[in-house]
Write a structure and sequence with these properties.
transmembrane, globular, 84% helix, Growth Hormone, Chain: A, 0% strand, membrane, mainly alpha
Length: 394
C-alpha cells in the first residue's frame, strides 16, 4: 500500500480519538483516591463521571454544526486542545464541586471530536466502513492502555498525576494534527447557526424510517456497550468467581479484541454490506453473553469464559458497520450535523445501560443482568433479520 495523505489523516484522527478517550478513562481507576481526597462517597464521584459522559453525548450534535460552519480541522483541534486543558483543570480541582464542573467541561471538549472526524474521514475515503472501523478502534486502544497506566502513575505520584495523563497524550497529538493535517473548507460557512438548531428539520431527519431504524440498532449496541464497559470486570469477579487480577486481564483482552476487530468488521461491511456484518456482530453477542451467563450458572470453567469475553469483544465492534450505515443514508450536506444528531440520540438513550444492568444485578443477580444483554443482542439480530427476510426496506 502506498502511503497517501488520507492515511495520515486517518492515523491522526484515530490518535486524536484515543487522546480524548484516555483523558476520560484515566479517571475511573483513581476513584478511591479521589473520594479520600475530597471526603465524598463513590456515588458522588460517580455522579460527576456520569455528568462527564452525558455532556460528551450532548456535544455530538453541536460539534457537527460547528464542523459545517468552521471546517472539521478547526473543530478537531479545538476538541483535542480542550481535552488537554480540561485534564489540567481536573487535576488541579480544589474541591469536589470544581471536580464535577471540570469533568463536565472535559466531556464537552472531548465530545467535539468524533462526529466531525467521522464526517471528515468519509470525505477522504471511498471504503468508509474500513476507515470508520480504524478510527473507532482508537477508543478500545485507550481502554486497553489508559486505566492501568493511570492506576500505576496514581499509585506512585497521586491521583492528580494520573489524571494528567490525558493532557500528556493530548498535547503531542494536538501538535501532530496541527502540523500534518491540511485546513478543511467549511461546508456551510454563511448559514446562521440558529437555522441548524431549528426543531423542524431535526425532527424530520430523525423520523425518516431508515434513520429511525438505524438509530434503534445503534441504541441497542450503545446500551450493551455502556453496560459491558461498566460491569464486565465486576461480573467476571463476582459472577464467575475469578480473581480480581484475572478479571482485569480479561477486561484488557476484551478491549484488545474490541479494538482489533473494528477495522475488520468495517472493511467486511464495505464488501458484503452493513446489515450482514452487523448481524455477525449481534450473533457474536448472543453467543458471547450467553456463554458468560452459562459459565456463571453452570461453572463451565475458564476456557468458556475466555471464549465468551472474546465473542463479546467482537460483538461490540457493531459500531463500524452501523455507523457506516448512517453515513450511507445521509447526504454530503447532512453528514456533519446529521451524524452528530443521531449520535447524540443513541448515546444519550444507550447510556441507560449502566443504570439498568446495575439495578437488575442488585435485584436478580449478575447472570440475569448479563442475560439481559444477550436478549438485547438477540433483539438487534431479530431486527436485522426481519429487515432482510421480509424486504422491509429499512
Amino acid at each position: 500500500m502506498n502511503w497517501r495523505y488520507e492515511h495520515t489523516a486517518l492515523a491522526l484522527c484515530t490518535l486524536a480519538f484515543t487522546g480524548t478517550m484516555v483523558a476520560r478513562l484515566a479517571v475511573s481507576p483513581l476513584v478511591p483516591e479521589i473520594t479520600t481526597q475530597f471526603g465524598v462517597t463513590n456515588g458522588t464521584v460517580g455522579l460527576a463521571l456520569s455528568g462527564m459522559w452525558l455532556t460528551y453525548a450532548l456535544a455530538q450534535f453541536p460539534s457537527g454544526v460547528l464542523g459545517d460552519r468552521y471546517g472539521e480541522r478547526r473543530v478537531i483541534l479545538t476538541a483535542v486542545g480542550a481535552t488537554a486543558i480540561a485534564s489540567v483543570l481536573l487535576a488541579a480541582s480544589p474541591s469536589m464541586l470544581a471536580f464535577g464542573l471540570f469533568a463536565a467541561v472535559l466531556g464537552v471538549g472531548a465530545g467535539l471530536h468524533y462526529s466531525v472526524a467521522t464526517t471528515f474521514l468519509t470525505r477522504q475515503f471511498d471504503d468508509t466502513g474500513r476507515a470508520i472501523g480504524v478510527h473507532v478502534a482508537g477508543g478500545p486502544l485507550a481502554g486497553l492502555a489508559a486505566p492501568p497506566a493511570a492506576a500505576l502513575v496514581g499509585s506512585r505520584y497521586g491521583w492528580r498525576a494520573g489524571v494528567l495523563l490525558g493532557a500528556a497524550v493530548a498535547v503531542p497529538v494536538f501538535a501532530l494534527f496541527a502540523w500534518r493535517v491540511r485546513p478543511t473548507e467549511p461546508l456551510r460557512p454563511d448559514q446562521p447557526m440558529g437555522e441548524r438548531f431549528a426543531f423542524g428539520p431535526l425532527a424530520e431527519l430523525l423520523s425518516r424510517p431508515e434513520i429511525l431504524y438505524t438509530t434503534a440498532l445503534a441504541t441497542m449496541g450503545a446500551f450493551t456497550w455502556q453496560a459491558t464497559a461498566s460491569f464486565l470486570p465486576t461480573f467476571l469477579e463476582v459472577g464467575t468467581g475469578l480473581s480480581s487480577a484475572l478479571s482485569a486481564l480479561l477486561f484488557s483482552a476484551y478491549f484488545l479484541v474490541h479494538g482489533g476487530t473494528q477495522p475488520v468488521t468495517g472493511s467486511i461491511s464495505d464488501r458484503i454490506g452493513r446489515d450482514a456484518t452487523a448481524m455477525v456482530t449481534m450473533s457474536a453477542g448472543v453467543v458471547g453473553y450467553g456463554a458468560l451467563v452459562a459459565t456463571a450458572t453452570l461453572d463451565l470453567g475458564l476456557p468458556v469464559t475466555v471464549a465468551g469475553v472474546g465473542l463479546v469483544g467482537l460483538a461490540m465492534s457493531w459500531g463500524a458497520p452501523v455507523q457506516s450505515r448512517f453515513m450511507d443514508l445521509l447526504s454530503d450536506a447532512e453528514r456533519g450535523a446529521g451524524f452528530g444528531l443521531v449520535r447524540t440520540a443513541y448515546m444519550v438513550t444507550g447510556a441507560s445501560g449502566s443504570v439498568v444492568v446495575g439495578a437488575v444485578s442488585d435485584a436478580a443477580g449478575w447472570p440475569v443482568a448479563f442475560g439481559l444483554l444477550a436478549c438485547v443482542m438477540a433483539l438487534g439480530l431479530a431486527t436485522l433479520s426481519a429487515n432482510r427476510l421480509f424486504g422491509l426496506g429499512y
